[in-house]
Design a protein that fits this description.
By secondary structure, this protein is mainly beta. The chain is globular, with a radius of gyration of 19 Å. It contains no helices and 28 strands. Strands 1-21-18-17-16 form a 5-stranded antiparallel β-sheet, with no helix packed on it. Strands 3, 4, 5, 6 and 7 form a 5-stranded antiparallel β-sheet that branches. A 4-stranded antiparallel β-sheet has the order 2-28-27-26, with no helix packed on it.
């Protein structure tokens, strides 16, 4: 979600804006567009301001609606809400129900939302027989948000079985509190916790800052502005993050599956590969693998997934992403953490707010106006 501070970004639904420039550039040098896989978008359902989704039990896809409901996408479309927290959240600014995730065994369901006070909250529910057990609900983690934008809010389980949580820098513009580079706050960070290992959670012993008295133990990576969407490559375990920029550059960050954490992605001293407002690049800055400027329509990158489905063989192994304002679905071809090609798939999801990976690796595109579309072979 946007994710970016500008008047057109917060209009009615979700604050994500603009589109990917037709000429994209990697973090290192321009990359020529490649021959794109031939795909089409098949509309499979309509939701009320869908914001996120996750693969669910029985081959279903669970869709979060920003106002606070969760509905299950099955062969016959969306069902009635299986969860409704609409009385506990608000769509003010960039708030709402922002992320959902299942653990590996579909035994627990997690939601990430901002409560009525604007506090980011991650709650857990037990799941039995594919159904949420409301009486098992408990709060795992909370984080106060100083402003109503840059909440982040995406959640995913990594290949290691731990829960990763993405928080933005706290909002306003330009990171006024310096949260991105401050290791004593959870804002502007990627967190890694064990939600079942303690009350309310445990810290994985190999987290990178557990022995640092000046840093929060939950932190896995830092220097993020608003990591609205991130994912793990189901084939390799690599981590990819779409981090929304401030004024000029959108970026996609990457970490290999064998990373030990601690990456500094640069914000707010860097925006992409560029010093922000005259700052000096940190010595440990990990530059993005891809960035694009706002010379076109681009303004809010929507991170996606590496395609590991079977329906579109020509797309396999490519990272699929979009931009809220542009809506065009694009891909990166990568090898050993380097971008080797960029493609425009020639389809548009509208004001794309999220991509969702189903149980078999097929991808869905969510438009904030309500469309839920599957990426199919043309």
């Amino acid at each position: 979600m946007n994710i970016r501070t500008r008047s057109s970004a917060i209009i009615g639904a979700i604050c994500l804006v603009a589109s990917l420039a037709l000429t994209t550039a990697s973090a290192d040098e321009p990359v020529a567009p490649r021959q794109a896989a031939k795909v089409t978008l098949t509309k499979v359902a309509t939701a009320q301001n869908p914001s996120a989704g996750a693969a669910g039990p029985g081959g279903t896809v669970w869709i979060a609606e920003r106002a606070g409901t969760v509905r299950v996408l099955g062969p016959k479309g969306l069902g009635e809400p299986v969860l409704d927290i609409s009385g506990e959240t608000t769509t003010d600014g960039e708030r709402g129900l922002l992320g959902v995730a299942f653990d590996k065994r579909f035994a627990h369901f997690y939601i990430s939302f901002t409560n009525l006070e604007g506090t980011s909250t991650v709650d857990e529910f037990a799941v039995r027989g594919g159904k949420i057990q409301p009486n098992t609900r408990r709060t795992v983690l909370t984080q106060t948000q100083p402003y109503s934008n840059h909440n982040g809010g995406d959640i995913k389980f990594g290949p290691d079985g731990y829960l990763y949580i993405a928080f933005g820098d706290g909002g306003a513009g330009g990171d006024p509190h310096g949260n991105g580079q401050n290791l004593d706050t959870l804002l502007g960070k990627m967190l890694r916790i064990d939600p079942r290992g303690g009350k309310p959670y445990a810290i994985p012993p190999d987290n990178p800052f557990v022995d640092d008295p000046g840093a929060r133990d939950e932190i896995w990576a830092y220097g993020l502005r608003n990591p609205w969407r991130f994912s793990f490559d189901a084939g390799t375990g690599d981590l990819l993050i779409g981090d929304v920029g401030q004024s000029d550059w959108e970026e996609i960050d990457w970490a290999p599956a064998d990373s030990r954490g601690g990456e500094n992605y640069g914000w707010s001293r860097m925006e992409g590969t560029h010093p922000f407002r005259g700052a000096t690049e940190p010595a440990n800055h990990v530059p993005p693998v891809h960035e694009y400027d706002r010379s076109g329509l681009g303004c809010s990158v929507i991170g996606g997934f590496v395609y590991r489905g079977k329906a579109i063989p020509d797309l396999k192994g490519q990272y699929v992403f979009s931009d809220y304002c542009d809506g065009t679905v694009r891909t990166l071809q990568m090898k050993n953490g380097k971008v080797t090609g960029v493609s425009d798939l020639g389809v548009n999801g509208g004001e794309t707010v999220s991509l969702v990976e189903g149980c078999k690796g097929e991808l869905y595109v969510l438009g904030i106006a309500g469309s839920i579309s599957r990426i199919d072979p043309a």
